[in-house]
Amino acid sequence: MSSTTKDSIRDQNDDVYASVDLAASLPKSEFPEPERNPRNVFNAIRDELMLDGNSRQNLATFCQTWVDDEIRELMDLSIDKNMIDKDEYPQTAEIEARCVRMLADLWHSPSPETTLGCSTIGSSEAAMLGGLALKWQWRKKRAAQGLPADKPNLVCGPVQICWHKFARYFDVELREIPMEGDRLIMSAEEVVKRVDENTIGVVPTLGVTFTCQYEPVKEVSDALDRVQKETGLDIPIHVDGASGGFLAPFCAPDLAWDFSLPRVKSVNASGHKFGLAPLGAGWVVWREASDLPEELIFNVNYLGGNMPTFALNFSRPGGQIVAQYYNFLRLGKEGYAKIHNACYATAQYLAEEISRLGPFEILFDGDSSKGIPALAWKVKEGQNTGGYTLYDLADKLRSRGWQVPAYSLPAHREDLVIQRILVRHGVSYDLATLLIDDIKRALEHFKQHPIVAPLSEQEASGFNHG
Ligand SMILES: *Cc1c(COP(=O)(O)O)cnc(C)c1O
Hints:
The chain is an alpha/beta fold. Helices cover 39% and strands 13% of the residues.
C-alpha cells in the first residue's frame, strides 16, 4: 500500500470534526478543485444551515414550516420525478388534474369536471398566469370591437409584489388603490373610480400581505355589476387567494368571494401556505374552460404524448403536487377547518394578550370572517414608549429566536409602522404563551434600560461644557 492510500484510509476513520476537510475554511467563491468526503461536507453544510435560525419560530412567513412524516416520505418517493413529463409519469399528472378538479369544486366552479387550471411553483407564477389570461381575453374583446388594445390597466388594492412584477414584466398599468386613513384595503367605491374600457380586470386580495385582511370581493363584484349596467363595461375579477383560498372555504364558508360570484373568472392560491403543502406548490384555476384563452395553451408532443401546458416554468418537482393531494385526502374539509380554526383561536389569544400589555393598538385580531389567522398592531397614537419602537421590539425578540417583523405600510400610509404575527399549522397555543412571556420580558427590559435617542450636537456640546 502506498503511503497516500494509507493516509486516505486513515482519513476515512477520522471523526468529522477532526478531518482534514474541516480543518480549514471551505471554499466560498472559487470553484473547488479537490474531491471531499461526502460525510464531512454534509456535516459542514448542515452546521452552516443552523445559522438560518429556526423556521418554526419565523412568525413572519405565511409558508409551511411544519411537515408530516408522511409528506416527507411522499416527497422522497417523488424526488426523481419531473412533473412536466406528463407522459412518463401519468399518475403524477393525473393527481395534479384531480387536485385542480377538487379546488374548482371547493371554489364553486359551475363545471369543476371540465374547467381548466394547473399547479405552479407558488402564487406568484399562478398570479402571472391569471393576469395573462385577463390580458388576452381583454385584447380579444377589443380586437373584435375594432378598438385599440395598447393601454391595458389592472385595478387592485395594496397588493403583494407579484402583481407589481406582473404589471412590469407584461406591460400593464397597475392602478393600485392607496391606503387612506384607517382604510388599509380596497373599497368598492375606490375600485369604481379607477376602472375604464382598458381595465383587463380587478384583483381583490383575500388576505392582504400587510394587514392580513380580506378585501371585499362581493361588494366589488356588485359594484362592477352596476358599472356594467350603466356603461356596458364587463370587467372580470381575478381573486388573489394566496392565503384566503385555503382558509375561507373551511373557516368562513358563508363569505361570498369565489366562483359563486359569476364575475370571478380565476383564482390563485398558494398550496404551500394554508394549503399545508411543502414549499413549491401553487394553483391557478379558471371558473370555466372558456375563461382561459386557448392561445395561451401550448401542446407539447416531444415528451411522448400530446399534452396541453400553460406555465412559465418547464421542469419542476412533482412531490409538492403529490403532497398536496395527500393533504386533500388526509384532511378533507373537516381536517382543514380544525387545523385552521386552532390557528385562528391562537391568533385571537395573542391579539388579546398584546392589547392588554398597554402600549399597543390591535389593527387586525385574527377574526376568521375578516382575514387570515394572524394579527397586526401598532403603537397607540400619542403613546410614550420611553424610547423603543416596534423595530426595537422585533430586534429584542430575535434574541430569543422569534422573528416578528415590524415594517411601514405602503402608499399613502408610509408613516404607519406596524408589527405582525402569522399563526400557522404548528404555531400552538402553548408556544404562543411562551412568546407572550418573551414580549413581556422585552418590555420590562426596555423599562429597565430605556433606549435613549442620541443627543443632538447642540445637546452634546452643552453636556460637555456643563
Ligand atoms: C404570498 C403571497 C403571494 C406570493 O405567493 P408565493 O406563493 O410566495 O409565490 C401573492 N399574493 C399574496 C396575497 C400572498 O400572500
